[in-house]
Amino acid sequence: MTLRTLALLVGLGGYVLACSSSNGDNGRAGNAVTGDGGPQGTVDASSEHDGGDGDGQGVIDAGSEDGGTSPIQAGGNEDEAPAQIHIIGRTDERDPDGPRFSWGTQIRTRFSGTGVAITLADNGANWFDVSIDGTAAAAFETGGPAQSYVLAQNLADQEHDLIVTRRTEAFEGDVQFLGITTPEGRDLIATTLPFEHRLEFVGDSVATGFGVLGVGPTCVPSLDNESEPNAYPAFTAAALNASHITIAYSGIGIIMDYNNGTTEQMPERYLRALVNDPSSVWDFSYVPDAVIIDLGTNDLTFSDPGPAFETAYVSFMELVRSKYPAAHIMVTVSPMIGDDDPSFPARTVLKNYLSDVIATRQAAGDANVSMFEFEEQTGDLGYGCSWHPSVAEQQAMSDKLVAALRAQLGW
């Protein structure tokens, strides 16, 4: 299950309790991001709100369970269902204390008051972006056991929209959502999601926003310069008024990763709610209108993988189709692959493989598939770290993908 129907309970000490709904490029430097926060809010990772002191904080607690209304919607297609908290992303809900997530995830709510905090536990180290009423507040870093992170304070005492977005990728660790607090002790406000469409992106480091905030190409990739919200999946979803889930992992491939590994490639990890936990089986309750796949660059980094690559890609397409019978599936050619080596024109080889994949699926009766080619990056728009796309390049990629999706889907 990715969604539980839960009751709103009035707890002790003025609290409001509710239940929850339902390795790649290592060796990066973990540089800090302070963020200026501006007038919208601050981050204070040392500030803790103890659920038992009766100080009148308002809490949505992800740990209790009861039948009834639905304060949290997680993982699925509940766009029209009112909820106090919406979690967009794959969640693992086996721990009754709260849902865990590792792939790209967004938490959305509406609150009334002068401040707000979120309680998270993290078995790794991750960065999150914060938006209050559509304006960026300071990003914050998580790590270790449960902490309450102050996201905003000294706001006008009125209703506010909060969006918290994970910006570091899946292999940085699993995060557990444990609650949202407000200093005035008021209930969070039930809302519906505003999106018209749903998208899923499957890819590698380009989709994760690897190094995108760095000034490259030779800067060192680190936690604070990776940002999925500044990569083409997020830009594309915003332009199309779509929710989106990004299933991406730096260095990964269809049959071989950047380090020549052949185990736990995307077809295997794609089935998981938590990227490194084979037992966390995802139920595919989030049903997208379209799936955009950008894989193959790492498979072809050093040599031609041969027919096994094409066979595996067709099988992966069949897997995606089995999960989403009505979705359009688009395969893409990355901006990071070129024909620089005359003895092995990798971009041309990949394009030929993908053309064959599409032809094979169409011959099998699947007409709802297509191929799209991102232009090879030239550096005219700058680079992120390690020759990865800059924010400007990611935006240019998105602009062309948006046009292709509009034409393909009639949006």
Walk me through the structure.
By secondary structure, the chain is an alpha/beta fold. Helix content is 17%, strand content 26%. Strands 3, 4, 5, 6, 7, 8, 9, 10, 11 and 12 form a ten-stranded mixed sheet that branches. The longest helix has 19 residues, at 391-409.
Summary keywords:
single chain, 411 residues, alpha/beta, 10-stranded mixed β-sheet, 5-stranded parallel β-sheet, 6 helices, 17% helix, disordered N terminus
Separation of termini? 31 Å
Fraction of residues in β-strands: 25-35%
Structural class: alpha/beta
Gross morphology: globular
Number of strands: 17
State the helical fraction.
10-25%
**What is the helix tally?**
6
- Give the quaternary arrangement of the chains: single chain
Radius of gyration: 21 Å
Could you spell the SSE succession in H and E letters?
EEEEEEEEEEEEEHHEHEHEHEH
The major sheet is characterized as: 10 strands, mixed
Mean pLDDT score, rounded? 85
Low-confidence stretches: 1-69
Summarize the structure.
The protein has 411 residues and is α/β, with parallel strands linked by helices. It is built from six helices and 17 strands.
Write the topology of this structure:
Elements: E1 8-10, E2 16-18, E3 58-61, E4 72-74, E5 85-88, E6 100-101, E7 106-113, E8 116-132, E9 135-136, E10 140-152, E11 158-166, E12 175-182, E13 197-203, H1 205-208, H2 232-239, E14 242-248, H3 266-269, E15 290-294, H4 307-323, E16 328-333, H5 346-363, E17 369-373, H6 391-409
Parallel strand pairs: 4-5, 13-14, 13-15, 15-16, 16-17
Antiparallel strand pairs: 1-2, 3-12, 5-7, 6-12, 7-11, 8-9, 8-10, 8-11, 8-12
Helix pairs in contact: 2-6, 4-5
